[in-house]
Design brief:
It contains four helices and 20 strands. It has 252 residues and is mainly beta. Strands 1, 2, 3, 4, 5, 6, 7, 8, 11, 12, 14 and 17 form a twelve-stranded mixed β-sheet that branches. The protein starts with a strand and ends with a strand. It binds the ligand O=C(O)/C=C/C(=O)CC(=O)CC(=O)O. Residues 61-62, 67, 71, 73, 108, 139, 141, 146-147, 222-223 line the site of ligand LGMQ2O6W. Residues 57-250 form the Fumarylacetoacetase-like C-terminal domain. Keywords: Hydrolase, Metal-binding.
Length: 252
């Protein structure tokens, strides 16, 4: 099932996307059971919004071996966690703003996990039952600040630095999913979540040992190799098989 959050004529709706048609729901799918209602909308007539408004946005770094190698970093023995500001989230087709052209600012395609129910101290066996679904994410990163600060919060939390979307797919195997990023039509990142060092289950176990996860929270699972810099006017497309394509551009 593909869940979508969108705006039409100034009103925000929640729906289920089938082909190009959205069937409206009677409420926010993150907040509890919802029913389809009879109204439908065409995908090309709506503004697609980020499919969740996370209270917490938690990321895992260096979770693909080839990316750790390209950054010259050793592989973390445990999932390496850091927090991002939820105010950085934008949706499909929205513009990313580079705060400065003096720093290198990179794209990072990632599988993003959306939490469905409160989770604390979950076991590996039950971990995936806390997942609502999966979406595409971009962990846009100011590399200059990342190195200067020695931690990642400022470098990764600027407004517009966390595109999510376009939908939440509930039926996905997070251990076997192709993930790809194209910049201006050229493939730059091309991997599979089977290359994750720490699986989605392991991430949920380790993160929920520390903090309580709430419905709508997002876990970004790390980026594969092939990261690179953004420039004004760039067009980005992240495709995760089974979810779809998250498209964004860099504002001039
Ligand atoms: O610490 C560094 O110099 C670089 C770290 C990374 O590239 C990790 C990162 O930004 C996030 C990720 O691996 O997904």
């Amino acid at each position: 099932m593909k869940y979508i959050r969108y705006r039409k004529e100034g009103t925000i709706y929640y729906g289920v996307l089938e082909s190009e048609t959205i069937t409206r729901l009677d409420g926010n799918y993150i907040e509890g059971p919802v029913q389809k209602i009879s109204a439908t909308d065409s995908l090309d007539e709506v503004e697609v919004l980020a499919p969740t408004e996370p209270g917490q946005l938690i990321a895992i770094g260096l979770n693909y071996a080839l990316h750790a190698e390209e950054q010259g970093k050793p592989l973390p023995e445990e999932p390496m966690m850091f927090m991002l500001s939820p105010t950085a989230v934008i949706g499909h087709n929205a513009g990313i703003t580079l705060p400065t052209e003096d720093h290198r600012i990179d794209y990072e395609a990632e599988l993003a996990v959306v939490i469905g129910k409160e989770a604390k101290d979950v076991t590996r066996e039950e971990a995936l039952s806390y997942v609502f679904g999966y979406t595409c994410g971009n962990d846009v990163s100011d590399r200059y600040l990342q190195k200067k600060d020695g931690q990642y919060t400022r470098a990764k939390s600027y407004a517009t630095f966390k595109p999510l979307g376009p939908v939440i797919e509930t039926d996905l195997d997070p251990s076997q999913t192709p993930i790809k990023l194209s910049l201006n039509g050229e493939v730059k990142q091309n991997s599979n979540t089977s290359d994750l060092i720490h699986s989605v289950e392991e991430i949920l176990v380790q993160v929920s040992k520390v903090m309580t996860l709430k419905p709508g929270d997002v876990l970004m699972t790390g980026t594969p190799s092939g990261v690179g810099p953004l420039s004004p006017g760039d067009e980005l497309e992240i495709e995760i098989e089974g979810i779809g394509k998250l498209r964004n551009y860099v504002n001039n």
